[in-house]
């Protein structure tokens, strides 16, 4: 009886908080409203030629890789200026294959205007966001007979997703294609990151995004494999650094940074932390360790197959 009552109460509380957006009634109708700022971004799915190992070399295993083995045509998310006027290059700290790093704060409403410019494969695409609140129409996930246009955006079409960063949305979350072409698209790099600050939380001095995935038979970080191709992240002693760690695909990884430790939300001290498909977490510390450090997945075969990079800390 008590358990039932607790369940009923918590379900009502969750519905009121907008977590269950398909509930019919006032709570659901009110869910996607928020008090904060309006964050508005323009993102398109665009075809690119991508090389997983641009320098053709595994610097640690001393293997050579020909461009024909490591290059493929794919579709990625790229940010545009207002009304898709012109493309914006991926910013430092957000290097690589993934789409724009979208910043917001709890309470904000986020409008993501999405355009499908996939003229290479002519496939439908979409954007499906983890961690935030939205009505069913902004779910972006294809369900035959149920989902709307936002789940199946055809080449040349545009759709706007309306998202709200709720109280429990603080943290980092993936977004990715969930249209009928999601299997090919996700392996091809059609994903990105939402980074949401809690109320009153200060933004870090440095924010590094690490997407662990696999492409072309290599284990990749942000779509690149091997030291010399994967991102080189940089910081100075005294700075607050934040690592946004995310994973998509079929594999579990163990994210490890040399010479550093961090505390997880449950208080445990770690220097290696497991992550499964579509999981995400952020790690923060105040930098106090100058040096040239490795960061990598500690699954040995993943590391030797490319999932390793350099972190440089200067005084
Ligand atoms: Cu791994």
Describe it for me?
The chain has 315 residues and is mainly beta. It has a single domain (38-314), classed as Cupredoxins -  blue copper proteins (Immunoglobulin-like, Sandwich). It is 11% helix and 39% strand. The chain contains five helices and 21 strands. The strands form six sheets. Strands 13-21-20-15-18 form a five-stranded mixed beta sheet. Strand 2 (57-58) and strand 3 form a beta hairpin. The longest helix has 16 residues, at 2-17. The chain is globular and about 50 Å long. Mean pLDDT is 89; it is low at 1-31. Copper (II) ion (CU) is lined by residues 212, 219, 251, 253, 297, 299, 302, 307.
Give the structure's gist in a few sentences.
The protein has 315 residues and is mainly beta. It has helices at residues 2-17, 26-30, 67-70, 182-187, 300-304; strands at residues 38-51, 57-58, 63-64, 71-80, 101-105, 109-116, 128-129, 158-164, 171-176, 191-197, 206-215, 218-221, 232-236, 240-247, 253-257, 262-263, 269-270, 272-275, 280-286, 291-297, 308-314. The site of copper (II) ion has 8 residues, from loops.
Topology:
Layout: H1 2-17, H2 26-30, E1 38-51, E2 57-58, E3 63-64, H3 67-70, E4 71-80, E5 101-105, E6 109-116, E7 128-129, E8 158-164, E9 171-176, H4 182-187, E10 191-197, E11 206-215, E12 218-221, E13 232-236, E14 240-247, E15 253-257, E16 262-263, E17 269-270, E18 272-275, E19 280-286, E20 291-297, H5 300-304, E21 308-314
Parallel strand pairs: 1-6, 5-10, 11-14, 13-21
Antiparallel strand pairs: 1-4, 2-3, 6-8, 7-9, 9-10, 11-12, 14-19, 15-18, 15-20, 16-17, 20-21
The chain binds copper (II) ion.
The site of copper (II) ion has 8 residues, from loops.
């Amino acid at each position: 009886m008590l358990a039932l009552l607790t369940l009923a109460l918590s379900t009502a509380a969750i519905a009121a908080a907008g977590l269950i957006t398909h509930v019919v009634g006032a709570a659901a109708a009110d869910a996607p409203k928020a008090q904060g700022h309006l964050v508005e971004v323009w993102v398109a799915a665009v075809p690119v030629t991508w090389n997983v190992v641009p320098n053709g070399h595994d610097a640690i295993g001393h293997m050579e890789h020909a461009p024909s083995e490591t290059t493929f045509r794919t579709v990625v998310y790229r940010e545009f200026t207002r009304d898709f006027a012109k493309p914006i290059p991926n910013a430092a700290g957000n290097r690589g294959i993934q789409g724009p790093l979208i910043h917001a704060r709890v309470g904000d409403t986020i409008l993501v205007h999405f355009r499908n410019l996939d003229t290479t494969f002519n496939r439908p695409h979409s954007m499906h966001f983890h961690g935030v609140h939205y009505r069913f129409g902004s779910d972006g996930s294809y369900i035959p007979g149920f989902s709307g246009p936002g789940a199946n955006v055809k080449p040349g079409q545009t759709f706007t997703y309306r998202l709200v960063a709720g109280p429990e949305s603080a943290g980092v979350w993936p977004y990715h294609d969930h249209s009928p072409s999601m299997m090919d698209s996700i392996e091809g790099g059609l994903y990105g990151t939402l980074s949401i600050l809690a109320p009153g939380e200060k933004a870090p001095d440095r924010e590094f995004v690490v997407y662990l995935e696999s492409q072309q038979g290599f284990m990749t970080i942000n779509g690149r494999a091997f030291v010399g191709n994967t991102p080189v992240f940089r910081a100075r002693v005294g700075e607050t650094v934040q690592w946004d760690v995310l994973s998509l695909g079929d594999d579990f990884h163990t994210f490890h940074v040399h010479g550093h430790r961090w505390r997880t939300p449950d208080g445990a001290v770690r220097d290696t932390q497991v992550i499964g498909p579509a999981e995400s977490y952020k790690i923060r510390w105040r930098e106090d360790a100058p040096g040239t450090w490795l960061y990598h997945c500690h699954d040995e075969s993943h590391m030797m197959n490319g999932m390793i990079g350099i972190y440089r800390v200067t005084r």
